[in-house]
Specification:
The chain has a domain of about 40 residues: Rubrerythrin, domain 2. Helices cover about 5% and strands about 20% of the residues. It is built from 1 helix and 3 strands. Strands 2-1-3 form a 3-stranded antiparallel beta sheet, with no helix packed on it. The radius of gyration is 22 Å and the shape is elongated. The mean pLDDT is about 80.
Length: about 70
């Protein structure tokens, strides 16, 4: 399940909520009880490749170690 960031436009309370993609956005602020909660648009999760990388092993061809594709 994705994590969504929310902020209340009334009391400025910030929180994260785990919910299904198909669920409607939450509206009621758990802090002040007003219907002023809005879902923030985030950049999503980043991907970090470590080590030699997938390209040299999966798509590199015969001479993957020197970076050339013959």
């Amino acid at each position: 399940m994705p994590t969504y960031d929310y902020v209340c436009n009334n009391c400025e309370h910030k929180l994260e909520i785990f919910q299904n993609i198909s669920e409607n956005p939450k509206r009621k602020c758990p802090e002040c009880g007003r219907m002023k909660l809005v879902r923030l648009i985030g950049s999503g999760g980043g991907v970090i490749f470590r080590g030699e990388g997938f390209f040299s092993k999966d798509y590199g061809g015969r001479n993957a170690s020197d970076g050339s594709n013959d």
